[in-house]
Amino acid sequence: MQLRVVGDQPWDVAADVLAVPYFGKPRFDGALAEIDRRGGGELTALAAFGELKAERYGAVVIAAGGLRAGRLMAIAAGEPETVTRQVVLRIGAAVERRLAGRNVRSLALWLGDLGDRIDGGAVAAAELLARGVVEGGFEPATIYRDGYENAPSTLDELILIAPGADLAALKQAAERGVVMGEGANLARRLDNRSANDVTPDVLAGEARAIAEANGLSIDVIEPARAAELGMGMFLAVGRGSDNPPRMIVIRSGEEGEKDALGRRLAIVGKGVCFDSGGISIKPADRMEEMKMDKTGACTVIAAIATVARLAPGTPLTAIAPAVENMPGPHSARPGDVVKAMNGKTVDILNTDAEGRLILGDAMCYAEKLGATNLVDIATLTGAVARALGDQMTGAFGTPQAWYDAVASAGERAAERYWQMPIIEEYRKDMDSWYADFTNTGSAEGGLIKSALFLREFATVPWVHLDIAGTAYFRKKTAYAPAGATGVAHATLVELALAGAKKA
Fold first, then answer.
1. Peptide bond into 152 cis (omega under 30)
2. Domain range for 430
3. Mind listing the pLDDT tens digit for each residue in 292-331?
4. Is the domain of 325 the same as that of 273?
5. Of 172, 187, 202, which closes a domain?
6. Which residues, listed in sequence order, are joined to residue 378 by a DSSP beta bridge?
7. Which among 489, 502, 460, 463 is positioned nearest to 263, based on CA atoms?
8. How far is CA 337 from the centre of its chain?
9. How far apart (Å, rounded) are the C-alpha atoms in residues 349 and 365?
10. Are 262 and 140 in the same domain?
11. Domain boundary among 187, 209, 231
């Protein structure tokens, strides 16, 4: 897709579709009034008819009258005082999705006053809109279906319109947004693929191709070497399946090198390619969604590739422990005691609390490789979805300064996190007669106990992102299809790029 940023007035730009945002119940003054006048007054007529609603992301497409565009789209940005970076991102996505099934090759998007509503101004708006358009173009129905007619249009050209702005700065920001969007879509495509298509070995092969394409080093640890390294938790989860586990390790930068902030950042993503629950088997209802239990792994694989595109050579490690959690003759059983890579013993009370087991060994290995700062990302608990729904990711971290750094990256990425407390008193509920601790406790406070478990395997600053609620949508929205959302990809990229060395 060709990207252009122009300083022309919106009515002078030729495109198949011109998209213009409006706030609240639209007031026709300034540039919006001129767009309406040149468009034959159709927008004011629609407003009088009650067609232009204030509800955010609603859009109408009409004839363009005397405008140079073929069609005019008006899209609701909601009330101006509630516009955030995430809203701007989703406006870009909603514009693209509104054109699903239409024959559109060139899209012009007027920034209007969006930049005045967010930190970073027009530059930030350009990046977020471009990223949103790219993310809005993702359609999981095309993965396995040929000739799907309702997919968003494949654009040849995206034109951002910003009269009076610094066009060079906006172009650079928009190009960055396109790369970020492409990275999120890479994660989403991997994530949406079915369990019979993506086994741990297939995921490792996909990771190898991505690493090689982006000049990254990769190491795939198979069961025999994992046993030599002492990854007892990782192997306990993976041994129940005929598809053996793989610990995927991707690195950029020289060995031992630290970034401009003095960090060797490691991002660790849960990669359960299918989660039946193992011996502690899940209910059948919605078990098909458990192909999405590899979201964390897909996210960190895509994130390190995106960082390599934007700032090659930035020191970063991505680790994706990939397994299938299946019942079988070799499966871990409730009551089994296993030893983690750091020597701690774990009493497995529930084999469906498997994600924390594979993450624990992966986090230990990240530190063995020299990580000074850790972030893990996982579809870990149903509790976080029940607490926060599908719009807010639950997060834990220690020390506070490291959590704040990750949260700041999330703000730049237009993603939302809610910090959850680490309550020490709950740790005793995980005591075991037979091992150092159990992999689960009573249901009360289960979300916090999952973080307490993971903390046992981190000796450096650490943040845990539980994306079980936000990793995928069960229903389509105006700005996204049902399926994987790509959540936290941009946060991890922003976090890593904060330490990129200046060219």
1. no
2. 193-497
3. 999 999 999 999 999 999 999 999 999 999 999 999 999 9
4. yes
5. 187
6. 466
7. 460
8. 34
9. 24
10. no
11. 187
Question: Both 10 and 88 in a single domain?
Answer: yes
Q: Is 255 helix (H, G, I), strand (E, B) or coil?
A: coil
Pair 78, 222 in one domain: no
Q: What is the rounded CA–CA span in Å between residue 406 and residue 465?
A: 10
394 with 260, same domain: the answer is yes
Instruction: Measure the CA–CA gap between 74 and 62, rounded to whole angstroms.
Output: 8
All residue ranges of the chain with pLDDT < 70 are 503
DSSP state of 369: T
- Residue whose pair of structure tokens reads 């249009």 in the numeric block: 153
The domain total for the chain is: 2
Q: What is the pTM of this model?
A: 0.97
Residues 244 and 203 in one domain: yes
What is the total residue count of the chain?
503
How far apart CA 483 and CA 298 sit, in angstroms, is: 14
Residue 27's pLDDT is 87
> Is 282 labeled as catalytic in the residue annotation?
yes
Does one domain contain both 133 and 212? no
**pLDDT at residue 503 in the model:** 61
How many C-beta atoms lie closer than 10 Å to residue 149's C-beta?
8
pLDDT at 501: 85
Give the integer Cα–Cα distance in Å for 466 and 487: 11
Q: Which two tokens stand for residue 253?
A: 């930068």
Rounded to 10 deg, the angle between the 121-136 and 85-98 helix axes is: 40
Q: Over the chain, what is the mean pLDDT?
A: 97
Query: Of the residues 68, 71, 258, 282, which is catalytic?
Result: 282
Amino acid at site 56: R
User: How many angstroms separate the CA atoms of 73 and 424, rounded?
Assistant: 53
> Given the DSSP bridges, would you call strands 2-6 and 71-76 parallel, antiparallel or unpaired?
unpaired
The CATH number for 89's domain is 3.40.220.10
- Rounded Cα–Cα distance for residues 466 and 477 (Å): 22
Residue 372 confidence (pLDDT)? 98
402: Cβ–Cβ under 8 A, 6 or more apart, which residues?
373, 461, 462, 463
Residue 34 and residue 182 in one domain: yes
Note whether residue 239 is domain-resident: yes
Following CA atoms 208, 209, 215, 221 in sequence, which dihedral angle do they give, to the nearest 10 degrees?
0
Beta-carbon contacts of residue 62 (< 8 Å; ≥ 6 apart): 39, 42, 43, 46, 71, 72, 73, 74
CATH number at residue 288: 3.40.630.10
Catalytic residue among 356, 412, 449, 455: 356
Is 502 among the domain residues? no
